[in-house]
UniProtKB/TrEMBL annotation:
Principal place of residence: cytoplasm
Gene: dapB
Protein name: 4-hydroxy-tetrahydrodipicolinate reductase
BP terms from Gene Ontology: diaminopimelate biosynthetic process; lysine biosynthetic process via diaminopimelate
Catalytic center residues: 156, 160
The enzyme's E.C. designation: 1.17.1.8
Keywords tagged on the record: Amino-acid biosynthesis, Cytoplasm, Diaminopimelate biosynthesis, Lysine biosynthesis, NAD, NADP, Oxidoreductase
Length: 267
């Protein structure tokens, strides 16, 4: 049996972190070796998460954890406020970041790409780890070649901090590669309530819904003469993201540089 890939999970106590820890434990190719949380230190992971995590304990010190565990991969599901510093620390120590937190700029991604290549390691930033969501984005980009009038409605739980979602932004970027920038709707339209037409990205409108009960959902709506086309993806629970997370932990060991988007590993 090949040597296991050693994985540290940052934000392990959170909803995505919990699912990630469980997925790593259940995959024979991966070894769960560390958990980082800003509020827990020295507490057994098994005690908090109710999972068979062996002797692994929570730590508040990311650098110390990465070093002591000799981690190969750091999976980050934290917040935009701390994620960037976590990526910097991981790359500096030669640990491959797999990041599901969103909110970074293209310039920051380019800088991390250069830093990863300098260290000879790979990294991945994925706005969405669900395979179905990646297919939704790919299908939407193809549809935009023929139906350029498009709007996006994305719906997430009410604890999500950024809007629009990283998935919506990635979808807009992919569509923009396939159609010319253009205005949509009546040129003299007026918002009676400011913002009711949503955000504007190269003429495409994006609308963000934040309500209890949702996990992660998006519909891309295309309009044409006498017809509409809706491409929709729904994550019913957070398990939907785990096949993509596990795949990323394995694939990130094989390349150099920071990849933006899980589709780059799939296609």
């Amino acid at each position: 049996m090949a040597e296991q890939i050693r994985v540290v999970v940052v934000g392990a106590k959170g909803r995505m972190g919990r699912e990630t820890v469980k997925a790593i434990i259940n995959d024979e190719a991966l070894a769960f070796v560390g958990a980082v949380d800003r509020t827990l230190d020295g507490v057994p992971v098994s005690q908090v998460l109710g999972l068979d995590a062996g002797e692994v304990q929570f730590s508040t010190d990311l650098e110390k954890t990465l070093l002591e565990t000799q981690a190969d991969v750091m999976v980050d599901f934290t917040t935009p406020a701390v994620m960037k510093g976590n990526i910097d620390k991981a790359i500096a120590l030669g640990v491959r970041p797999v990041v599901g937190t969103t909110g970074m700029t293209p310039e920051e991604i380019a800088a991390w790409d250069a830093a990863c290549k300098e260290r000879g390691i790979g990294g991945l930033i994925a706005p969405n780890f669900a395979i179905g969501a990646i297919l939704m984005m790919r299908f939407a980009a193809e549809a935009a070649k023929f139906l350029p009038h498009v709007e996006i409605i994305e719906m997430h739980h009410d604890q999500k901090l950024d809007a629009p979602s990283g998935t919506a932004i990635k979808t807009l970027e992919l569509i923009a590669q396939e159609r010319e920038k253009m205005g949509q709707g009546h040129p003299n339209e007026h918002e009676t309530i400011a913002g009711s037409r949503g955000g504007d990205y190269e003429g495409m409108r994006v609308h963000s819904v934040r309500l209890p009960g949702y996990v992660a959902h998006q519909q891309v709506i295309f309009g044409g003469l006498g017809q509409t086309l809706t491409i929709r993806h729904d994550s019913i629970n957070r398990e939907s993201f785990m096949p993509g997370v596990v795949l990323s932990c394995k694939e990130v060991m094989k390349y150099e540089g920071m990849v933006y988007g899980l589709e780059n590993l799939l296609f």
